[in-house]
Write a structure and sequence with these properties.
By secondary structure, the protein is of the alpha+beta class. The protein has three helices and eight strands; from the N terminus they run ααβββαβββββ.
Length: 159
């Protein structure tokens, strides 16, 4: 009987940890986690292509993925290290693959290697993520979450 209680407490602790991951506030409904592409791509396999585009929003022109969903950057990432992993990457799925655009994107496209070995798309050196709570193209509900998540804006005058 004690073993069942310990297992139940462990499961509860794991659920609380997952809900409290990067960007989820305790008072917000739990995000619907999209499968993390990093787990599917695996190290050593060719990286898929990530189609990038733009969309006008109330926040300005933002970078989007091929399905029109807004892409975000995380302030805690650095030019050499990705910090959104584990439960964080379930709420903020990384854009896995090599980015390409239609030639009209003014920023620099690239990739960074995630801790699991997968290539994550970058724009102007920032790793790119979606937000699991954005349920339709053009939504920007992740902007400002925890003060560390921001839409990636695209400035046509950028050079």
């Amino acid at each position: 009987m004690a073993t069942k209680s310990i297992l139940a407490l462990a499961a509860l602790g794991a659920a609380v940890t997952l809900a409290g991951g990067c960007g989820a506030d305790a008072g917000e409904p739990e995000a619907t986690a999209h499968p993390t592409p990093a787990a599917a791509s695996g190290a050593g396999m060719p990286a898929p292509e990530v189609e990038l585009g733009t969309r006008g929003t109330a926040l300005g022109t933002v970078l989007t993925d091929g399905a029109g969903f807004t892409l975000y950057r995380f302030d805690e990432d650095t030019p050499t290290e990705i910090h959104c992993t584990g439960p964080c990457a379930e709420i903020w799925p990384p854009s896995i693959g090599t980015p390409h655009g239609d030639g009209h994107l003014p920023g620099t496209l690239g990739t960074m290697t995630r801790p699991d070995g997968a290539a994550q798309a970058t724009y102007d050196g920032s790793p790119l993520y979606r937000f699991a709570k954005d349920t339709a193209p053009g939504q920007t509900t992740g902007d400002g979450v925890k003060g560390t998540w921001h839409v990636v804006t695209v400035d046509a005058a950028h050079g």
